[in-house]
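Usage

Read records sequentially. Each one opens with the input sequence:
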Amino acid sequence: MLNLTVARTGRSAIDAATQNSFERICTSSTIALARWLAGEGPEVAHAANKETWIFYGELAAHRAVSLNVLIMRCLYWRDAVAEVLQQSAARLDVSSEALSQALNILQLSLEFGLTRMSKSFDTERGRTEDELAFMATHHELTGLPNRTLILDRVEQMLARCSRSHTQVAALLVDIDNVKTVTDTLGHAAGDQILQAVAARLDGVVRGSDALGCLGGSEFVVICEELSLEAGPELTAERLLEVLKPSFKLGAGGETRFTMSASIGIAVGERTSAEELLRDADIAMCQAKWDGKNRYVVFEPGMQDEVQSRMELEMDLRDALPNDKFFLVYQPTFNLRDMSATGVEALIRWKHPTRDIIQPNDFIPLLEATGLIIEVGAWVLKEACCQGAIWREAGHPIGMAVNVSARQLDTDEFVTDVRNALSESGLDAGALTLEITETTLMCNVAETSRRLTAIRELGVRIAIDDFGTGYSSLAHLQQFPVDALKIDRSFISRLTESSEGETLIHTLVQLGKSLSIETLAEGIEQQQELSLLQAEECDSGQGFLYARPMDAVAAETFLQTWASGAAPALAHAPQRSGRHAVTRWGA
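and closes with the structure output:
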């Protein structure tokens, strides 16, 4: 679309910056129109077009082109889109009525844009030169220096540091979950969060440093005269710490969100400001992939790793359509009689050149790109179908499926669960959805409401990696929870010290007091199993029993275990000051 529009404009005597603004207007307008045509409605398209109006304002503020030239460019865009729509309709055999409707929407979109553009130019005519200069160098929403002004300041800092032989550092701060707020409460709430984040960051940045907003959810802090020992790292820690308290949204502050950030740090001399920010951006991407809510310092060679990740992301987009994902299943057991009670479905990716890729290497990419929504729905449906097959074959087991924070962002997930159960025929009580503590705390009120709706279907809810997040007992009681999965990090401490046993005892007793099942994950040693049985932990899973396996191997395992041919476990010892160690029996 962009190429067609540019081709229609011919060769115009405008500078590169103005041409870039035209191209950004074309791109954002096309995206907004596509969302309207896809059925999201004019309101969504109107919100999506906000970026286009900012570009109009910038062009008017800089007096880069006349209103007439800008109108002509919009008409060129309209004609290019119409041409693509007509060609697509012919190729796809779309009805004339549908094509006519699409062209009408295109015309309405153009008219909305022209109206807004004219208002932008009228507004700019009444501004003073100082106001125009401020607008050109500051972010409209937060009032912070924008990319143009930040780059100028960084160039000045680099020059000073070169003369004085001191260091300069750029900290690129990307807010991890602004999209969650926008998707849940709308664009106005997203803007409110960004303004609140800007105020908090500004409160901890030193007076000698510079804070700016690069657009979207990206902020930058520029520091100079740093000490050689952990200067930028301490700054990054302050920035992360100031974001920890929850943000209150709405007129009465009735909605709370917990925000986090991924920070990339680039330190030292560079040939240009762009190069310093580029390296900070690379480090920020690494922080995202490492799990978010952290900082990473740029290192040589990191750019190659980022390039590799980008290539992996491109391959990831083709994985689901090309059936490259598959599930493996790890059994869970009742620790009292060692009967198999269920399996946990785990995703794997068969890459065309890298063989089998483990979830830790691609799940963060799925979440970052939003593909987790589609892939998560596929996992849910596939697991439910397999669970129904096994239950019909006489294996009375449950099926557990992991759920990401992005899936719980919208009410659509409740529909996904309902559809998966309906299409597979799996009994709702046989499905358990596993959600981490961190996911629960992203938006307590909305998450609780959606989980309650899912619980009403008859589905069980488990908190995964329990003990590693930030939930309190009060928070725990807000959610319809059926099971607590005790994290492997606690299980591994069982045999290391008495404190490990005390901690497990506390977690198991918490479950009992709330009438919630406790399940220990990551059991790898016989002694760990014995101690868990002595504490009367309900269930467990781990390599001590079985590693994740494909559906055929899992069914064989279940048949063998049920027939009694698998190794039997000796009775668990009674709890006492010291615990006996049981072994696998014949």
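Summary fields computed downstream for this record:
- Residues 198 and 312 are 33 Å apart (CA to CA).
- The first helix runs from residue 2 to 9.
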